[in-house]
Amino acid sequence: MATSYTQIRSMLVSEMFYLRNILTTGCLKCTALSMAMGSGSTWSILGNQQNRRVFSLYKTSTWHQTRRRFFPSYMETRHSSSLPSQDNVIRIPKAVARKLEKRMNQRGPFKFRGRLFVGQPGKLIISAKRSEFSHYQNQYYDKFKPPRLASQGWKHKKSVGDHFTINSIKGNPTLMKEETDGISTTFDSFNLHESLLDGLNSLNIKQPTKVQVAAIPKILHGHNVLCAAETGSGKTLTYLLPLLHHLKKENEERGMEAVARLPRSLVLVPSRELAEQVLAVARRLCNCVDLSANIIEGGRRIKTLQNTTVTPTDILIATPSALLRCLISGWIHLTNIRHVVIDEIDTMLDDSFKKIVVNIVKRIPIRGEAAMSENAQLIMTGATMPKNANLTLEEVLEPEALVTVATSYLHRLMPHVPQKFLRLHSSEKAGKLLELVKRDIKHDIQVMVFCGRTESCNWVSYFLQNNNIPGVVRLNGNMNVSQRVGIFRRFQKGTEKVLVCTDIGSRGLDTVRVQHVINFDFPNAMSDYIHRVGRVGRVGSLASGHVTSFIVHRWDVDLVNKIERAVRKRDVLPSVDANIKGRLNRIQQAKLNEDML
Questions:
Q1: Cα(19)–Cα(21) distance, rounded to whole angstroms?
Q2: How many Cα atoms occupy the beta-carbon half-sphere of 58 within 13 Å?
Q3: Closest listed residue to residue 357, CA positions, set 343, 374, 337
Q4: β-bridge mates for residue 227, sequence order
């Protein structure tokens, strides 16, 4: 087996002095060669040639005859292409060769250039401004010694100007490979209705993702499913396809049809923008199977809501508050519901929505087993797994009745999206933002700028507009419905180039055109960071994109430390807390306490 120059060098460097000690003990022959090796000679490791590990002693011709005289048993070989004609190559003694072979084959960490590795040093994963903090693939850290972080000292004001980047090292892990391990990678294998397959072909959707392969069969079988997968992995189709399949089969076999005020399936989402997005996808598929979809969202007039409920609907997409209002008013009833979907489950079980969502779900009898077809099926999806899902829904669902589907990259940074962290002073943020946005606009790249508060979102949008940045729009929860209508849709179609938003734009929205995400205000929660990063590198995106984060405050550094440490240790991201509202309240209280001190 051939051995490269780099491999031999790394494995033999510790054996050079060992071999010299052997040769310098016991006899005149060894003494002569020791003189040849010690008097200004240079050692150079060569590659494997004809399965012989060799090294050369470069020396002037003065010692050439000495080596030939005292070591006639060693084979000498000339290398006309790389070595002078008078230099000799001496084979390593068999005992040393066996020791080196054993060293190469042994498992476990080894040290190279001051770093521990568990395998051949691979790609550069973390590139830091200070190279001693860079991190390579297969690099290993002692479990009793925490890794040195590039962001370790970023709480100090002298760290301003430092930066590091988490590089892209592989392709999108959500995509299925061609026919792997006998598992079919086409939608035909799910036995979906033929009309749905035709609809997928018309939408140019050919291959399912990993989460779709794992979850769709379980949903089709009738199980209550909690589906947690990385952002941009196709979770909307994961629940829409089985729902439409079941509804179409019921139409054909039982003659069941939609009735006014009695929808047959319910999809709950946290925001009106996400509701409109799901509705657009559902209607394109419903047209293929002769079904209907409608929406109930907040901010509408009473008359509009009443007219919506009168229309017969197979699939109803709704935001929690608007739906609860219709239920209390008696404009809609849930007695015909056979499928309930809670999308973005981490947000929906947050303190912001939990009481309303539980109130709605308690009105629907949920099946305990797949065989109990007379009760409704419950499906929950999200990019972060809520730890308290079973406890929150224990009033309506037994924990044993829930099947969990989770992908391997859940709660991990996506390896195909580069992410850069810049340590800045607060006075430098605006200038750096303007520089990055101008560069993206010059190259016709769509940008999303995330802010922590509504006031910051408004200021950043005005700042960019005043600096003649074209196509800047903003989106936050405090905007009137009339202002929000159509903003994200225009951005999604590419009409607008820059979207400045709060975290309302980070949940579930399909942004395949976006190639750059800028965290103007770094998020307070790990789950928010995961969702923001998920706006780029999605299935169907034009490019993998990249993320730039501005690190200013001391509390930002704590979250950056956790992210960097997880990447270095190849571990999941910690503290993925689903209760964002509760966490924000704790952070706000901590800031107030710090200001008082």
A1: 5
A2: 10
A3: 343
A4: 381, 405
The tokens describing 234, both together, are 């196709």
Q: Residue 226's beta-bridge partner residues?
A: 380, 404
Residue found under tokens 């239920």:
327
d(CA 316, CA 376): 14
Do the domain assignments include residue 178? Answer: no
DSSP state of 483: H
CB of 112 closer than 8 Å to CB of 122: no
* β-pairing verdict for 293-296 and 315-318: parallel
Domain boundary among 406, 428, 458: 406
317 neighbors 275 (Cβ within 8 angstroms) = yes
Q: Give ∠ CA 444-489-202 in degrees, rounded to 5.
A: 90
- Per-residue pLDDT tens for 171-221? 899 988 755 545 657 899 999 999 999 999 988 898 999 999 999 999 999
Contact 469, 581 (CB under 8 A): no
Taking alpha carbons only, the member of 64, 53, 54, 62 closest to residue 87 is 64
What does DSSP assign to residue 176?
P
Long-range contacts of 26-32 (CB under 8 A, 24+ apart): 28/70, 29/70, 29/71, 32/66, 32/67, 32/70
In 3-state terms, what secondary structure has residue 566? helix
pLDDT digits (tens, 9 = 90+) for 138-180: 888 887 888 999 999 999 999 999 999 999 998 899 988 755 5
Domain extent for 428: 107-173+413-597
What is the model's pTM? Answer: 0.78
Given a contact cutoff of 8 angstroms between Cβ atoms, the answer to whether 267 and 293 are in contact is no
Helix axes 320-329, 302-310, angle to 10 degrees: 80
In a domain, 179, yes or no: no
Total count of domains within the chain: 3
Spatial separation of the C-alpha atoms in residues 534 and 413, rounded to whole Å: 9
Q: What are phi and psi of 146, to 5 degrees?
A: -65, 145
Q: Is residue 570 in a domain?
A: yes
Contact between 31 and 63 (Cβ < 8 Å): no
Same domain as 553, residue 425: yes
Q: H/E element holding 125?
A: strand 124-128
Q: Quick one: tokens of 476?
A: 């936050």
pLDDT tens digits, one per residue of 167-178: 999 889 998 875
CA distances from 270 to 217, 300, 341, 377, 579 (A): 26, 16, 12, 20, 14
110: left (phi over 0), alpha (psi -120 to 50) or beta: beta
Say which residue the tokens 């571990």 belong to.
571
Please check whether residues 244 and 359 belong to one and the same domain.
yes
Q: Which positions ≥6 away from 141 have C-beta within 8 Å?
A: 116, 147, 568, 569
- Estimate the crossing angle of helix 272-289 against helix 235-254, to 10 degrees: 40
Given the structure tokens 């800031």, which residue do they identify? 591
517 has which bridge partners? 448, 547
Residues 260 and 304 in one domain: yes
- Which residues make Cβ contacts (< 8 Å) with residue 429, sequence separation at least 6? 520, 550, 552
Query: Which among 275, 283, 236 is positioned nearest to 481, based on CA atoms?
Result: 275
Q: How far apart are CA 147 and CA 309, in angstroms?
A: 58
347 & 440 share domain: no
Q: Looking at the domain assignment, is residue 508 inside a domain?
A: yes
239, 192: one domain: yes
Task: Note the helical H segments in 468-524.
Answer: 481-484, 487-493
